[in-house]
């Protein structure tokens, strides 16, 4: 199974990974059914061309969505906040971002390791940290903010011989982190003053209702039988039981995810101070959590777009200025990009290693074939000395034949 080709120190879109896996499974189902029936289309199942067209449309919609948000911001506040944010960045803020990203990356790799172990595709800690850095760099520099995670899942799946399970491990790992972030965000928004404090109870009720609906559907949908939904339900239930809710997995997942959320929020607070925002931390922390939640939206260009738009709105709604929100988001984006640069080193080392293995000078020359001895050195006996029986009879003539 082939899947297109890991998040910057920021939340991503974990459900996109599971959607990618299910899309690949659907394409496999369509191909199998078409081969069995001799027809290109299968009733009730989208064709491969339809899936490709929808994915292409969605990809362009995400890019244009992020570009539209940035264009509106430039139209409303100008380019000044963007340039001011870049000018205020100093070495100390970048060093702090690199240090915090190191801690959060190790925690993310540990969380991935716990989930993958439960799914039977163990991830060693050292290579896991390197792979997570690589995924962060790709997510930061590529549109959508999730291609690095897909690449991480595909690479690990190929290493263990099961691409589907490798993608599911990454998807469940990211989903568990998002769940912990949502819970912490709702709790802090209920406690601390924020622009959405009056709406938080309604949001919390909607989240709880959504969770109950998912559990109810999981209980009602059939778990047995050969249908695709039944197989998906059995796989999902087994993944959650062994990968997320196992006794030796969930405490570490919660702890690692909490540290990651605290690290992201701390980085945003440092970015705010670097941009010149002097508001108290109790006022900035809810804004940071709102911006981090908005960064999970897939309509971004390398992380840019929704982050700046929500920051401008949240800062203005909290009594600050939209320009301060944009400048803080810009500083945060640059800090995250610099903190993900170790992933570029991982990519460069892998590329050089692959190039050295495939270069002509590194290939071992094929052993030369031993020359055979010349024909003259192995003279065969004359044909007359070893005549075959029919030939001897012909030479002897009638008399010889008669004697014979």
Can you describe what's shown?
The protein has about 400 residues and is mostly helical. It is about 70% helix and about 0% strand. The chain is built from 15 helices and no strands. Helix 4 runs antiparallel to helix 10, helix 4 crosses helix 13 and helix 7 packs across helix 10. The longest helix has 30 residues. The protein is globular, with a radius of gyration of 32 Å. The N terminus and C terminus are likely disordered.
The share of residues in extended strands comes to under 5%
| 3D shape | globular
Mean pLDDT: 80
Q: By helix and strand content, what is the structural category?
A: mainly alpha
The total strand number stands at 0
Distance between the termini: 75 Å
Query: What is the H-and-E element order?
Result: HHHHHHHHHHHHHHH
**Rg, nearest Å:** 32 Å
Helical fraction: over 70%
* Major pleated sheet: none
What is the overall number of helices? 15
- Report the uncertain regions: 1-47, 374-378, 383-404
Structural key phrases:
single chain; mainly alpha; 15 helices; 0% strand
The gist of it:
The protein is an all-alpha fold and 404 residues long.
Blueprint (SSEs and pairs):
Blueprint: H1 14-37, H2 48-77, H3 80-87, H4 91-118, H5 125-141, H6 147-160, H7 163-191, H8 200-220, H9 228-244, H10 250-274, H11 281-294, H12 306-317, H13 322-339, H14 341-358, H15 389-403
Helix pairs in contact: 1-7, 2-12, 3-13, 4-5, 4-7, 4-9, 4-10, 4-13, 5-6, 5-14, 6-7, 7-9, 7-10, 7-11, 10-11, 10-13, 11-12, 12-13
